[in-house]
Amino acid sequence: MARLDLSQQRFATLELLLLWEGILNRSRLSSLLGVGDIRASQLIQEFRDQNPKWLAWNTKSRSYHATHEAYTTTNRGKLSIDRAESLSRYLNLVGLPYVIGDMDSGGPICAAFPDLSTPSPEIFATLSQSIRLKQSVEITYRSMGEPAPHKRTISPHHLVRAGRRWHVRAFSSKHQNFRDYALGRIVAVNPLNSPLEQAEEHDAAWNAIVPVRLIAHPDLSRDQEEVIRFEYFNNTSARVISCRGALAGYFVQDIRAAIDTKKQIPPDYQLAVQNIEEVKPWLFPK
Description:
Blueprint: H1 2-21, E1 23-24, H2 26-33, H3 37-50, E2 55-58, E3 63-66, H4 68-78, H5 83-94, H6 121-133, E4 135-141, E5 150-162, E6 165-172, E7 177-182, E8 186-195, H7 204-207, E9 209-216, H8 222-232, E10 238-244, H9 248-254, E11 257-258, E12 271-273, H10 276-283
């Protein structure tokens, strides 16, 4: 069974490479999977046997290239995950070098800017373990309201990447409510080996699902509106994204969607939240 699982994982890797790089060759596969050239060739052949219409041999590059059929098939639903998740998995697989900081990455994909707030691996792992064990932790934290390091006892239930920062969603013993703590501001984490004071199911904002209806900013010209529809809405007039209430503010902020179209105007804002009255309570909780 373990061998089958490994085979499935490797086939998923080949699918990601084919779809996002448009090409499969044994040297690339050998580098990513840590297998020899012969095994890499075998994996490609096995993958090709399962998906014969997805690959076409290119004699010039001596590699298999993705066919149009590969993309139309996955777009029709054969791909087990959606496009955004597929891209996320691909980037996790190959890494995302910073365009200046890693000039020798050798790949055509890079990040425009460095990650300014990468969390400490030890802090990340300790929180992750406490979440899995459903146990409280004591953190030493710094905030804008209290810049000096201070201790807080929290009951964490999720680690979340919101925009450029990582947060832990947790119940605060002091404040007696659920809130977010930026991992970059956590100095230390001390597991308490005690049960959670409040669990995920008690976090109303986390469990609330909020539909955010996005439209092109009303101040855009007709032609500009068509560009936005093409880029974000698949040529439709709007798009509804459902997100957790606790994360709605991060989402709207990250995509720079206007919530006050009189003050937040193009070119700084090209998207707008249409159902602002429905979304606003989650953007500005009391």
